Amino acid sequence: MMEQDDTVMTGAYYDKLPTLLSCDLYNLLDVMPKPVVHHLHLTAAAPISFLVEKLCYYKHVYYSQKD
Question: How many CA atoms lie within 13 A of 58 on its CB side?
């Protein structure tokens, strides 16, 4: 990628997009499995009350309204 365009890291994103999309690193990352849910339909999720009451108040949660 850097051989094609040595300014790819400092240029404007959309100007460098063709170089980024054609590089081997992009192709590798594009085929890797995604580790998170990108979106979730509420009909497939746990009820909001469960998520708030049961998951948001553990001490190991980064943000807690209790504290």
Answer: 7
Q: Helix 24-31 crosses helix 13-22 at what angle (to 10 degrees)?
A: 80
* 33, amino acid identity: P
Give the H or E element holding residue 14.
helix 13-22
Q: What is the DSSP letter of 56?
A: T
Q: State pTM to two decimals.
A: 0.42
- Per-residue model confidence as pLDDT tens digits over 19-59: 888 888 888 888 877 666 667 777 777 787 887 777 667 66
Q: Is 26 helix (H, G, I), strand (E, B) or coil?
A: helix
